[in-house]
Amino acid sequence: VDLARKKAGSLHEVLVRPEHLDLTEECKETTKLKAESLAQAPQLEQALQQFNQSVSNELNIGVGTSFCLCTDGQLHIRQLLHPEASKKNILLPECFYSFFDLRKEFKKCCPDSSDVDKLDVAAMTEYLNLEKSSPAWRFGASQVEDMGNIILTLISEVYNCRFADPERVNYKFESGTCSKMELVDDNTIIRARGLPWQSSDQDIARFFKGLNIAKGGAALCLNAQGRRNGEALVRFVSEEHRDLALQRHKHHMGNRYIEVYKATGEDFLKIAGGTSNEAAQFLSKENQVIVRMRGLPFNATTEEVVTFFGQHCPVTGGKEGILFVTYPDNRPTG
After folding, report:
1. Chain segment 113-142, per-residue pLDDT in tens
2. What is 25-168's CATH number, 3.30.1450.10, 3.40.50.150, 3.30.365.10, 3.30.420.10?
3. CA contacts within 13 A on the Cβ side of 253
4. pTM for this one?
């Protein structure tokens, strides 16, 4: 939809071939899709390339031209595209890291309408007394046509809706520290169980790809011996993202399914809360990839650690890029 000229563009449809072509009767009835059509469709990476090419051609993207995606809710971008692309090691174009949620924009313009979680394209179309799309299009494409008509109505002089503040998807997880004195909202925390013992905070962030984890919001739980026990507490930026995370209960990380439950701010602070300024300073450095070393001699020095990695694997910041973990009485843990 061209917001300046208040005009809808052409409608396109690109099918994506799934890993399994078996369709339920309900799916066939709702979407009007056939297994034969999907068998000939491109896989996700090729479909995304087709999408990019189509958008570039139609918009004639150049200096001063920009566009932003608009979706019916959060699920398409956050719960489908980003996790699936991450799983298949597909690098998503930048345009998939920001989008407008039409349900939220609609609620801003029509505050007396249904709650956001009860809105969908059909409900918005009915509220605005718009005609439904042509039955010639299949399920997804017909919804997009309806969405275009909804947007055109919202930006008209009657509603004067401004699409100005898009949703954001974090590009990467940021490490950080959390003070024991910090107030942590209970409604932003989950507990993940069943993680492979070698999982890192980056692996956890990858599992929840598409959802925004707070800075330093992935805390791995340790057993009495200081080893990871397959659990983690994760803090999200909002209750909405926490609720989406709960929907990934029993999704897979490799061959293991991960259990996801609600947890509390107190649970998170027990694991993530700290008071070490030294650790906070260490984690504040830019462009870092952190590895944990175990089994060091108790009298090991920073120079020896730098020498251990050698010239072919230089430590970022040299001696400043090393932090020795100690017990509360400052004895080295190794």
Report:
1. 999 999 999 999 999 999 987 777 777 888
2. 3.30.420.10
3. 23
4. 0.85
